[in-house]
Amino acid sequence: MEIGWCGSEPKAFRPVIEPSRLIMRTGDYQDVVVERDGKQHKGRYLIIHGKLPMIEVSYGDGSKTTQVGGTPPEILAKIMVRELLDKQKRAGSA
User: Which residues have CB under 8 Å from 54's CB, separation 6+?
Assistant: First the structure.
């Protein structure tokens, strides 16, 4: 979420949140498991409702967000966990 500031003096600062950037996260994170090289890797995902439905996926120290299209969220989450796993493996942390 982007926060800007208005006012000319520090004592007059107040946060201003850009309305077009407001999002609503609903529900709980769901677990998703991906198997690779005989090991199970557990990630989490959350559906974000806004102008366009989005999915936020986290695995390890990484996270990704993308628009939900015609692919079921759990399948999309598994794809995204695999991408995060690949990125961490390339960085040497998986």
Answer: 23, 47, 48, 65, 66, 67, 68
pTM of the entire structure? 0.69
**Is-contact 85 61, C-beta < 8 A?**
no
Map out the domains of the chain as residue ranges: 23-91
The pLDDT tens digits of the residues spanning 48-88 come to: 888 888 999 999 989 999 999 899 999 999 999 999 999 99
What is the spatial distance between Cα 46 and Cα 58, in angstroms, rounded to a whole number? 9
- DSSP conformation letters of the chain: --EEEE-SSGGG-EEEE-GGG--EE-S--EEEEEEETTEEEEEEEEEEESSS-EEEEEETTEEEEEE--SS-HHHHHHHHHHHHHHHHHHHT--
Asked whether the beta carbons of 36 and 85 are under 8 A apart, the reply is yes
